[in-house]
Amino acid sequence: MKSICVYCGSNAGNDPAYAALAHDLGTRLARDGIALVYGGGNVGLMGVVADAVLAGGGEVIGVIPQQLVDWEVAHKGVTRLEVVDSMHTRKARMFELADGFIALPGGFGTLDEMFEMLTWRQLGLGKKPCAFLDVGGFWQPLMVMLDSMVRERFLHADQRNDLWHGQDIDGLLAWMHDYVPAQADKWLDEKRRSQLKLTSEEV
Predict the structure, then answer these.
(1) pLDDT of residue 201
(2) What pTM was estimated for this model as a whole?
(3) CA gap 163, 155 in Å, rounded
């Protein structure tokens, strides 16, 4: 794995453990020679993880919309900063650059970015690993919600299981290294089988 995209908050949160986790992840990426792809900001957890990679001698690629550059939140010290025209372009470019995706604690933007990647993977548009790196149980309520989606048959269990959630950076990176994606066509086949069953029962 040559590069990993990290989604995280543009705020640092109210618990120092969030920034500590971002720093530890950035330090580990630099140590392992894995480039960081991220949103290009110099604030919040975004700035912490980028600075940690840079401090460790690693490569940092920021992708940021012009609007945020105009708001003066762009990190000027990264290895490469790509300025794009929109949030949509940003997400597509980050997908192109990264071999996998990690969500640290964050808000709407973090969820939006990660769930788009999960949706693309479910539809077979990408086969890259997605993980939620936790601290203090921040992501646990979301995992409960995903389990509820499976029980209520809005989410296939294979797709629910096709993501990593935990607190161990070593375990996360090992999982990403050995990742084998769930097959999108298996999900589609089950849908077709259900449709065929309904049709046969109606005859």
Answers:
(1) 47
(2) 0.89
(3) 13
